[in-house]
Specification:
Largest sheet: 3 strands, parallel
Distance between the termini: 28 Å
Oligomer: single chain
Order of helices and strands: EHEHHEHHHHEHEHHHHH
Radius of gyration: 21 Å
Bound molecules: tryptophanyl-5'AMP
Number of helices: 13
Mean pLDDT: 96
Shape: globular
Low-confidence stretches: none
Strand content: 5-15%
Number of strands: 5
Structural class: mainly alpha
Amino acid sequence: MFQDQLVSYSGVQPSGNLTIGNYLGAIRNFSLYSEKYKCFYCVVDEHAITVRQNPAELRRRTYETLALYMACGLDPEKNTLYVQSHVHEHAELAWILNCYTMFGELSRMTQFKDKSAKHADNINAGLFTYPVLMAADILLYQTDVVPVGVDQKQHVELCRDIAERFNQLFPETFTVPEPIISQSGKRIMSLAEPTKKMSKSDENANAVVYILDDRDTIIRKFKRAVTDSETSVRFAEGKDGINNLMTIYSCFTDKSLEDIEREFDGRGYGEFKRAVGEVCADALAPVQARFRELLADKSALEAQMRKGAEEASWYARRTLGKVQKKLGFVKI
Ligand code: TYM
Protein backbone atom coordinates (compact mmCIF):
# COMPACT_ATOMS: atom_id res chain seq x y z
CA MET A 1 0.00 0.00 0.00
CA PHE A 2 1.44 3.36 -1.02
CA GLN A 3 -0.51 6.39 0.17
CA ASP A 4 -3.83 4.47 0.37
CA GLN A 5 -3.36 2.78 -3.01
CA LEU A 6 -3.05 -0.99 -3.30
CA VAL A 7 0.03 -1.92 -5.31
CA SER A 8 0.68 -4.76 -7.79
CA TYR A 9 4.29 -5.43 -8.83
CA SER A 10 5.96 -7.95 -11.09
CA GLY A 11 8.92 -8.36 -13.43
CA VAL A 12 10.19 -10.35 -16.37
CA GLN A 13 13.83 -10.94 -17.32
CA PRO A 14 14.85 -9.86 -20.84
CA SER A 15 17.09 -12.92 -20.96
CA GLY A 16 15.59 -14.84 -23.87
CA ASN A 17 12.59 -15.02 -26.14
CA LEU A 18 9.50 -15.00 -23.97
CA THR A 19 7.41 -18.17 -23.92
CA ILE A 20 3.73 -18.97 -23.56
CA GLY A 21 4.70 -19.95 -19.98
CA ASN A 22 5.67 -16.32 -19.30
CA TYR A 23 2.48 -15.22 -21.05
CA LEU A 24 -0.03 -17.56 -19.37
CA GLY A 25 1.69 -17.69 -15.97
CA ALA A 26 2.40 -13.99 -15.65
CA ILE A 27 2.13 -11.24 -18.29
CA ARG A 28 -1.43 -12.01 -19.39
CA ASN A 29 -2.56 -11.66 -15.78
CA PHE A 30 -0.83 -8.33 -15.12
CA SER A 31 -3.60 -6.24 -16.67
CA LEU A 32 -6.20 -7.78 -14.32
CA TYR A 33 -4.92 -5.40 -11.65
CA SER A 34 -4.79 -2.19 -13.68
CA GLU A 35 -8.14 -0.84 -12.48
CA LYS A 36 -7.96 -1.47 -8.75
CA TYR A 37 -4.22 -1.29 -8.10
CA LYS A 38 -1.33 1.02 -8.75
CA CYS A 39 0.68 -1.31 -11.02
CA PHE A 40 4.42 -1.48 -11.65
CA TYR A 41 5.77 -3.92 -14.22
CA CYS A 42 9.49 -3.98 -14.68
CA VAL A 43 11.92 -5.31 -17.28
CA VAL A 44 14.52 -6.73 -14.90
CA ASP A 45 17.77 -6.36 -16.82
CA GLU A 46 19.89 -6.40 -13.65
CA HIS A 47 18.54 -9.85 -12.82
CA ALA A 48 19.38 -11.06 -16.34
CA ILE A 49 23.14 -10.55 -15.93
CA THR A 50 23.33 -13.20 -13.20
CA VAL A 51 23.95 -15.49 -16.18
CA ARG A 52 26.20 -14.33 -19.04
CA GLN A 53 24.39 -12.24 -21.65
CA ASN A 54 25.44 -10.98 -25.03
CA PRO A 55 25.25 -7.14 -24.62
CA ALA A 56 23.65 -6.47 -28.03
CA GLU A 57 21.04 -9.16 -27.39
CA LEU A 58 20.30 -7.92 -23.88
CA ARG A 59 19.76 -4.42 -25.25
CA ARG A 60 17.44 -5.68 -28.02
CA ARG A 61 15.47 -7.88 -25.64
CA THR A 62 15.00 -5.03 -23.20
CA TYR A 63 13.16 -3.06 -25.91
CA GLU A 64 11.29 -6.19 -26.96
CA THR A 65 10.13 -7.06 -23.45
CA LEU A 66 8.78 -3.56 -22.92
CA ALA A 67 7.01 -3.74 -26.31
CA LEU A 68 5.58 -7.14 -25.37
CA TYR A 69 4.20 -5.79 -22.10
CA MET A 70 2.27 -3.24 -24.10
CA ALA A 71 1.33 -5.68 -26.87
CA CYS A 72 -0.12 -8.00 -24.20
CA GLY A 73 -2.51 -5.25 -23.19
CA LEU A 74 -0.68 -3.23 -20.55
CA ASP A 75 -1.65 0.39 -21.08
CA PRO A 76 1.30 2.63 -20.10
CA GLU A 77 -1.16 5.28 -18.92
CA LYS A 78 -2.60 2.89 -16.34
CA ASN A 79 0.56 0.94 -15.46
CA THR A 80 4.09 2.07 -14.71
CA LEU A 81 6.23 0.13 -17.19
CA TYR A 82 9.97 0.60 -16.79
CA VAL A 83 13.46 -0.88 -16.91
CA GLN A 84 15.12 -1.90 -13.64
CA SER A 85 18.58 -0.40 -14.30
CA HIS A 86 16.96 3.02 -14.89
CA VAL A 87 15.99 3.21 -11.21
CA HIS A 88 19.18 2.99 -9.15
CA GLU A 89 17.29 2.54 -5.87
CA HIS A 90 16.80 -1.17 -6.70
CA ALA A 91 20.51 -1.94 -6.43
CA GLU A 92 20.90 0.28 -3.36
CA LEU A 93 18.05 -1.31 -1.42
CA ALA A 94 19.29 -4.76 -2.48
CA TRP A 95 22.62 -4.06 -0.77
CA ILE A 96 20.86 -3.07 2.44
CA LEU A 97 18.57 -6.10 2.36
CA ASN A 98 21.60 -8.36 1.75
CA CYS A 99 22.58 -7.46 5.30
CA TYR A 100 19.18 -8.67 6.56
CA THR A 101 19.10 -11.95 4.62
CA MET A 102 20.70 -15.12 5.88
CA PHE A 103 23.16 -17.28 3.94
CA GLY A 104 21.13 -20.35 4.90
CA GLU A 105 17.92 -18.87 3.48
CA LEU A 106 19.55 -18.18 0.13
CA SER A 107 21.13 -21.64 0.06
CA ARG A 108 17.68 -23.20 0.15
CA MET A 109 16.41 -21.46 -2.99
CA THR A 110 15.62 -24.10 -5.61
CA GLN A 111 16.22 -21.70 -8.52
CA PHE A 112 19.76 -21.08 -7.25
CA LYS A 113 20.37 -24.83 -7.02
CA ASP A 114 18.99 -25.39 -10.55
CA LYS A 115 20.82 -22.46 -12.13
CA SER A 116 24.12 -23.23 -10.45
CA ALA A 117 23.89 -26.80 -11.72
CA LYS A 118 23.18 -25.48 -15.21
CA HIS A 119 25.91 -22.79 -15.16
CA ALA A 120 28.54 -24.66 -13.14
CA ASP A 121 31.32 -22.53 -14.65
CA ASN A 122 29.77 -19.27 -13.43
CA ILE A 123 28.26 -19.64 -9.95
CA ASN A 124 28.66 -15.95 -9.17
CA ALA A 125 27.56 -14.13 -6.02
CA GLY A 126 24.82 -12.34 -7.98
CA LEU A 127 23.19 -15.66 -8.81
CA PHE A 128 23.18 -16.44 -5.10
CA THR A 129 21.79 -13.08 -3.94
CA TYR A 130 19.35 -12.79 -6.87
CA PRO A 131 16.30 -13.21 -4.57
CA VAL A 132 17.46 -10.24 -2.48
CA LEU A 133 17.41 -7.97 -5.53
CA MET A 134 13.95 -9.35 -6.28
CA ALA A 135 12.88 -8.53 -2.70
CA ALA A 136 14.22 -4.99 -3.18
CA ASP A 137 12.18 -4.63 -6.40
CA ILE A 138 9.00 -5.62 -4.62
CA LEU A 139 9.53 -3.81 -1.31
CA LEU A 140 10.58 -0.47 -2.83
CA TYR A 141 7.01 0.01 -4.06
CA GLN A 142 5.21 -1.10 -0.85
CA THR A 143 3.67 -3.89 -2.90
CA ASP A 144 0.52 -5.76 -1.84
CA VAL A 145 0.33 -8.39 -4.60
CA VAL A 146 2.92 -10.03 -6.85
CA PRO A 147 1.38 -11.91 -9.81
CA VAL A 148 3.87 -14.65 -10.79
CA GLY A 149 4.08 -18.24 -12.00
CA VAL A 150 4.54 -20.92 -9.38
CA ASP A 151 8.34 -21.10 -9.90
CA GLN A 152 8.70 -17.63 -8.31
CA LYS A 153 6.60 -18.39 -5.22
CA GLN A 154 9.60 -19.35 -3.09
CA HIS A 155 11.30 -16.04 -3.90
CA VAL A 156 8.21 -14.03 -2.95
CA GLU A 157 7.99 -15.99 0.30
CA LEU A 158 11.60 -15.13 1.08
CA CYS A 159 10.77 -11.49 0.31
CA ARG A 160 7.98 -11.70 2.91
CA ASP A 161 10.42 -13.12 5.48
CA ILE A 162 12.93 -10.34 4.79
CA ALA A 163 10.20 -7.67 5.07
CA GLU A 164 8.90 -9.13 8.33
CA ARG A 165 12.40 -9.34 9.81
CA PHE A 166 13.12 -5.74 8.85
CA ASN A 167 9.74 -4.56 10.17
CA GLN A 168 10.41 -6.23 13.49
CA LEU A 169 13.60 -4.23 13.89
CA PHE A 170 12.19 -1.06 12.29
CA PRO A 171 8.39 -1.11 12.56
CA GLU A 172 6.17 -0.18 9.63
CA THR A 173 8.88 0.09 7.02
CA PHE A 174 7.56 -2.30 4.36
CA THR A 175 4.22 -3.66 3.21
CA VAL A 176 4.43 -7.46 3.35
CA PRO A 177 3.45 -8.72 -0.14
CA GLU A 178 1.34 -11.73 -1.18
CA PRO A 179 2.23 -13.84 -4.21
CA ILE A 180 -0.74 -14.24 -6.57
CA ILE A 181 -0.53 -17.38 -8.63
CA SER A 182 -3.12 -17.82 -11.34
CA GLN A 183 -4.54 -21.30 -10.99
CA SER A 184 -4.72 -22.18 -14.66
CA GLY A 185 -1.38 -21.06 -16.12
CA LYS A 186 0.79 -21.29 -13.04
CA ARG A 187 3.17 -23.89 -14.46
CA ILE A 188 3.28 -24.53 -18.20
CA MET A 189 5.51 -27.49 -18.96
CA SER A 190 8.01 -28.27 -21.72
CA LEU A 191 6.46 -29.88 -24.82
CA ALA A 192 9.42 -32.28 -25.10
CA GLU A 193 9.79 -33.20 -21.42
CA PRO A 194 6.46 -32.45 -19.78
CA THR A 195 7.75 -33.03 -16.24
CA LYS A 196 10.01 -29.96 -16.69
CA LYS A 197 8.94 -26.30 -16.69
CA MET A 198 8.75 -24.62 -20.11
CA SER A 199 11.72 -22.29 -19.98
CA LYS A 200 13.00 -19.56 -22.30
CA SER A 201 16.53 -20.86 -21.78
CA ASP A 202 15.72 -24.39 -23.00
CA GLU A 203 18.18 -25.41 -25.72
CA ASN A 204 15.56 -27.47 -27.52
CA ALA A 205 13.43 -24.90 -29.40
CA ASN A 206 10.79 -27.59 -30.05
CA ALA A 207 10.16 -27.88 -26.31
CA VAL A 208 9.11 -24.26 -26.08
CA VAL A 209 6.43 -22.16 -27.78
CA TYR A 210 7.57 -18.56 -27.97
CA ILE A 211 5.06 -15.72 -27.91
CA LEU A 212 6.54 -14.54 -31.23
CA ASP A 213 6.52 -17.91 -33.04
CA ASP A 214 4.61 -17.81 -36.32
CA ARG A 215 1.40 -19.77 -36.80
CA ASP A 216 2.95 -22.71 -38.69
CA THR A 217 5.73 -23.09 -36.14
CA ILE A 218 3.24 -23.06 -33.26
CA ILE A 219 1.08 -25.72 -34.91
CA ARG A 220 4.13 -27.85 -35.78
CA LYS A 221 5.50 -27.66 -32.21
CA PHE A 222 2.20 -28.78 -30.69
CA LYS A 223 1.91 -31.56 -33.27
CA ARG A 224 5.28 -32.89 -32.08
CA ALA A 225 4.51 -32.53 -28.37
CA VAL A 226 5.36 -35.60 -26.32
CA THR A 227 2.25 -37.40 -25.03
CA ASP A 228 1.70 -41.05 -24.01
CA SER A 229 0.71 -44.35 -25.55
CA GLU A 230 -3.02 -43.99 -24.80
CA THR A 231 -5.47 -42.28 -27.12
CA SER A 232 -8.08 -40.63 -24.90
CA VAL A 233 -7.85 -36.94 -24.03
CA ARG A 234 -8.31 -36.96 -20.26
CA PHE A 235 -6.58 -35.29 -17.35
CA ALA A 236 -5.00 -37.95 -15.14
CA GLU A 237 -1.93 -38.73 -13.11
CA GLY A 238 0.98 -39.93 -15.21
CA LYS A 239 -0.37 -38.24 -18.37
CA ASP A 240 1.93 -35.21 -18.02
CA GLY A 241 2.05 -34.35 -21.72
CA ILE A 242 -1.73 -34.45 -22.20
CA ASN A 243 -2.31 -32.69 -18.87
CA ASN A 244 -0.05 -29.87 -20.04
CA LEU A 245 -1.78 -29.58 -23.43
CA MET A 246 -5.19 -29.58 -21.73
CA THR A 247 -4.00 -26.84 -19.37
CA ILE A 248 -2.78 -24.73 -22.30
CA TYR A 249 -6.03 -25.30 -24.23
CA SER A 250 -8.02 -24.39 -21.13
CA CYS A 251 -6.02 -21.17 -20.61
CA PHE A 252 -6.63 -20.02 -24.18
CA THR A 253 -10.32 -21.00 -24.38
CA ASP A 254 -11.47 -20.63 -20.74
CA LYS A 255 -13.02 -24.12 -21.04
CA SER A 256 -12.90 -26.41 -18.01
CA LEU A 257 -10.92 -29.67 -18.11
CA GLU A 258 -14.22 -31.63 -18.04
CA ASP A 259 -15.54 -29.69 -21.04
CA ILE A 260 -12.32 -30.38 -22.92
CA GLU A 261 -12.56 -34.12 -22.16
CA ARG A 262 -16.13 -34.07 -23.48
CA GLU A 263 -15.20 -32.04 -26.58
CA PHE A 264 -12.45 -34.47 -27.60
CA ASP A 265 -14.14 -37.68 -26.53
CA GLY A 266 -13.26 -40.34 -29.13
CA ARG A 267 -11.27 -37.90 -31.30
CA GLY A 268 -7.65 -38.93 -30.62
CA TYR A 269 -4.46 -37.00 -29.87
CA GLY A 270 -3.70 -35.80 -33.41
CA GLU A 271 -6.89 -33.78 -33.66
CA PHE A 272 -6.51 -32.45 -30.12
CA LYS A 273 -2.92 -31.29 -30.69
CA ARG A 274 -3.98 -29.47 -33.86
CA ALA A 275 -6.77 -27.71 -31.92
CA VAL A 276 -4.34 -26.63 -29.16
CA GLY A 277 -1.97 -25.22 -31.79
CA GLU A 278 -4.79 -23.32 -33.47
CA VAL A 279 -6.21 -21.68 -30.34
CA CYS A 280 -2.71 -20.70 -29.27
CA ALA A 281 -1.83 -19.21 -32.68
CA ASP A 282 -5.20 -17.38 -32.84
CA ALA A 283 -4.69 -15.85 -29.39
CA LEU A 284 -1.11 -14.75 -30.09
CA ALA A 285 -1.72 -13.28 -33.57
CA PRO A 286 -3.02 -9.88 -32.35
CA VAL A 287 -0.25 -9.69 -29.71
CA GLN A 288 2.38 -10.29 -32.41
CA ALA A 289 0.88 -7.71 -34.77
CA ARG A 290 0.79 -5.06 -32.06
CA PHE A 291 4.33 -6.02 -30.95
CA ARG A 292 5.70 -5.42 -34.45
CA GLU A 293 4.06 -1.98 -34.63
CA LEU A 294 5.44 -0.98 -31.24
CA LEU A 295 8.94 -2.24 -31.94
CA ALA A 296 9.11 -0.28 -35.19
CA ASP A 297 9.12 2.97 -33.20
CA LYS A 298 12.18 2.80 -30.97
CA SER A 299 12.08 6.44 -29.94
CA ALA A 300 8.50 6.00 -28.68
CA LEU A 301 9.70 3.01 -26.62
CA GLU A 302 12.55 5.09 -25.24
CA ALA A 303 10.13 7.89 -24.33
CA GLN A 304 8.06 5.24 -22.55
CA MET A 305 11.15 3.98 -20.70
CA ARG A 306 11.91 7.52 -19.56
CA LYS A 307 8.36 8.17 -18.39
CA GLY A 308 8.20 4.82 -16.57
CA ALA A 309 11.56 5.39 -14.88
CA GLU A 310 10.51 8.84 -13.68
CA GLU A 311 7.26 7.52 -12.22
CA ALA A 312 8.94 4.53 -10.58
CA SER A 313 11.81 6.62 -9.16
CA TRP A 314 9.37 8.85 -7.32
CA TYR A 315 8.07 5.87 -5.32
CA ALA A 316 11.46 4.15 -5.01
CA ARG A 317 13.12 7.28 -3.61
CA ARG A 318 10.55 7.59 -0.88
CA THR A 319 10.95 4.04 0.38
CA LEU A 320 14.75 4.06 0.15
CA GLY A 321 14.89 7.41 2.00
CA LYS A 322 12.70 6.00 4.77
CA VAL A 323 14.90 2.89 5.08
CA GLN A 324 18.15 4.88 5.15
CA LYS A 325 16.78 7.16 7.86
CA LYS A 326 15.66 4.22 10.00
CA LEU A 327 19.07 2.57 9.64
CA GLY A 328 20.88 5.68 10.85
CA PHE A 329 22.50 6.81 7.59
CA VAL A 330 23.32 10.52 7.72
CA LYS A 331 21.36 12.67 5.30
CA ILE A 332 23.18 15.71 3.88
P1 TYM B 1 11.14 -14.91 -15.36
O1 TYM B 1 11.67 -13.85 -16.26
O2 TYM B 1 11.84 -16.21 -15.33
O3 TYM B 1 9.64 -15.21 -15.72
C1 TYM B 1 8.68 -14.16 -15.80
C2 TYM B 1 7.34 -14.66 -15.25
O4 TYM B 1 6.90 -15.79 -16.01
C3 TYM B 1 6.57 -16.87 -15.12
N1 TYM B 1 6.89 -18.13 -15.79
C4 TYM B 1 6.02 -19.16 -15.92
N2 TYM B 1 4.75 -19.31 -15.52
C5 TYM B 1 4.14 -20.47 -15.83
N3 TYM B 1 4.75 -21.49 -16.50
C6 TYM B 1 6.02 -21.37 -16.92
N4 TYM B 1 6.60 -22.35 -17.60
C7 TYM B 1 6.73 -20.16 -16.64
N5 TYM B 1 7.98 -19.71 -16.91
C8 TYM B 1 8.06 -18.48 -16.37
C9 TYM B 1 7.47 -16.63 -13.90
O5 TYM B 1 6.94 -17.28 -12.77
C10 TYM B 1 7.45 -15.14 -13.78
O6 TYM B 1 6.30 -14.70 -13.09
N6 TYM B 1 12.70 -13.53 -10.83
C11 TYM B 1 11.69 -13.31 -11.84
C12 TYM B 1 11.64 -11.88 -12.32
C13 TYM B 1 11.51 -10.85 -11.24
C14 TYM B 1 10.33 -10.56 -10.50
C15 TYM B 1 10.67 -9.49 -9.64
C16 TYM B 1 9.05 -11.11 -10.48
C17 TYM B 1 12.48 -10.00 -10.83
N7 TYM B 1 11.97 -9.18 -9.86
C18 TYM B 1 9.76 -8.93 -8.75
C19 TYM B 1 8.13 -10.55 -9.59
C20 TYM B 1 8.47 -9.50 -8.74
C21 TYM B 1 11.99 -14.21 -13.02
O7 TYM B 1 13.09 -14.67 -13.21
O8 TYM B 1 10.98 -14.33 -13.89
